[in-house]
Amino acid sequence: MKIVGTILKILAALAAIAGAIYVIATYGDRIVAWAKDLMSKYCYCDCCGDCCCDGEDCCCDDCCEDAPAEDADFVEE
Fold first, then answer.
1. Fewer CB within 10 Å, N side or C side of the chain?
2. Could you tell me if 50 and 60 are in contact, meaning their C-beta atoms sit under 8 angstroms apart?
3. Residue 33, H or E segment
4. CB burial class (10 A; 0-12, 13-18, 19+) of residue 52?
5. Is 44 helix (H, G, I), strand (E, B) or coil?
6. What 3-state DSSP class applies to 51?
7. DSSP state of 15
């Protein structure tokens, strides 16, 4: 009876993996688009407080490049 239980556990694990692969293959582009949209709403640049972006018109390029380094940036703990 232990063998049957072990086989069923292995089959359940394989089915879960196959289901995850199917979902990723079928809806991967939608998941990535949703994640990018979500990150654009809640991800902020530390130096200027504006939103982060990965395109050509990034709002953080100007403020982050010109931000001066402070002594606190180089403190070793």
1. C
2. yes
3. helix 2-42
4. middle
5. strand
6. strand
7. H
Backbone angles phi, psi at 15, to 5 degrees: -65, -40
Element (H, E) at 27: helix 2-42
Q: What whole-number distance in Å separates Cα of residue 2 and Cα of residue 20?
A: 27
pLDDT higher than 60, residue 52: no
Which residues have a Cβ under 8 Å from the Cβ of 65 and sit 6 or more positions away? Answer: none
Q: What is the pLDDT of residue 10?
A: 97
Measuring CA to CA, how many Å separate 70 from each of 42, 51, 63, 74? 26, 23, 15, 7
* Total length of the chain: 77
Cβ neighbours of 56 (radius 10 Å): 6
pTM score of the predicted model: 0.46
DSSP state, residue 66: S
DSSP label of 72:
G
- In this structure, which amino acid lies at residue 3? I
